[in-house]
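Progress note, sequence design subtask.
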C-alpha cells in the first residue's frame, strides 16, 4: 500500500511541475506501440505531441505480457527478441510529459515497466518494457482496438501483421486477480494461514491502482 501512496504522490508532483513550468521544457522522443497509439488516450492523459512519425523498433517483439488489473489480463510490452520488430509511432513530447508518462506506465514505485533508452536520428528516445513479462495473458477488446485501428492507418505496418493481431484472443470476462506477485511477493515465505488474506490484499491493491490510474487532482489544469 505504501508503494501505491508514493506512486500517487509522485504522480501529482509531476503534474504540478508540468503546470508551473509549462514553457521551460526540453523535448524527447517517445516510442508508442500500445494504447498510447490512440489520440483519445493522449488527450485523456493530456500529452502534447510536437512531431510524430511511424517507426519500427528492431530486436523486439510485441507481446501482451505486462500483467494487468484482472485475472489473465495483459497489456502490451516490447519484449527483447533478436530479429523481430515492433511497429509503432515516435512522438516528440515535453520532458515533463515524459516524466508524467512514467507514472501513467507505472515505472516509479510500482515497477511495472522498465524504461529503455535507444537512439533515433542521433537523438535519444525511450519506450517501456515489462519488468516481469508473463505468458498466457490477454488484452481486452478495447485495448486491442487501440492498436489495430492505428495499424490500419500506418503504411509502414504490413497488412499480414495487422491481420495476425486481429486474431489475438481477448479477455472476455474481467475477473479479480487471484494471484500474488506484485504487491505481495514470495507468498511461499508467509505462513499458509495468511495466504487467503494476502491474496485478498493483492486483489484490492490492483483495484485501487486501476481506480487511480488515469485520474489526477491537477491534470485538468494542464493545457495541451
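Output:
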Amino acid at each position: 500500500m505504501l508503494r501505491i501512496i508514493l506512486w500517487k504522490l509522485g504522480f501529482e508532483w509531476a503534474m504540478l511541475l508540468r503546470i508551473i513550468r509549462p514553457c521551460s521544457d526540453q523535448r524527447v522522443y517517445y516510442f508508442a506501440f500500445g494504447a498510447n497509439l490512440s489520440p483519445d488516450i493522449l488527450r485523456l492523459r493530456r500529452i502534447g505531441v510536437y512531431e510524430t512519425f511511424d517507426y519500427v523498433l528492431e530486436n523486439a517483439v510485441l507481446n501482451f505480457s505486462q500483467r494487468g488489473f484482472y485475472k489473465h489480463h495483459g497489456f502490451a510490452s516490447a519484449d527483447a527478441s533478436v530479429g523481430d520488430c515492433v511497429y509503432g509511432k515516435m512522438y516528440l513530447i515535453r520532458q515533463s510529459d515524459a516524466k508524467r508518462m512514467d507514472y501513467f506506465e507505472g515505472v516509479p514505485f510500482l515497477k511495472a515497466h522498465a524504461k529503455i533508452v535507444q537512439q533515433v536520428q542521433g537523438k535519444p528516445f525511450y519506450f517501456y518494457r515489462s519488468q516481469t513479462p508473463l505468458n498466457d495473458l490477454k488484452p481486452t477488446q478495447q485495448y486491442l482496438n487501440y492498436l489495430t485501428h492505428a495499424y490500419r492507418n500506418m503504411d509502414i505496418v504490413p497488412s499480414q501483421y495487422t491481420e495476425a493481431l486481429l486474431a489475438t484472443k481477448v479477455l472476455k470476462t474481467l475477473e479479480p486477480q487471484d494471484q500474488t506477485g506484485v504487491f505481495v511477493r514470495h507468498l511461499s515465505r508467509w505462513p499458509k494461514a495468511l495466504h487467503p488474506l494476502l491474496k485478498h490484499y493483492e486483489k484490492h491493491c490492483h483495484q485501487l491502482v486501476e481506480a487511480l490510474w488515469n485520474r489526477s487532482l491537477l491534470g485538468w489544469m494542464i493545457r495541451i
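The chain has one domain: 2-221. Work on this subtask will continue into the next period as scheduled.
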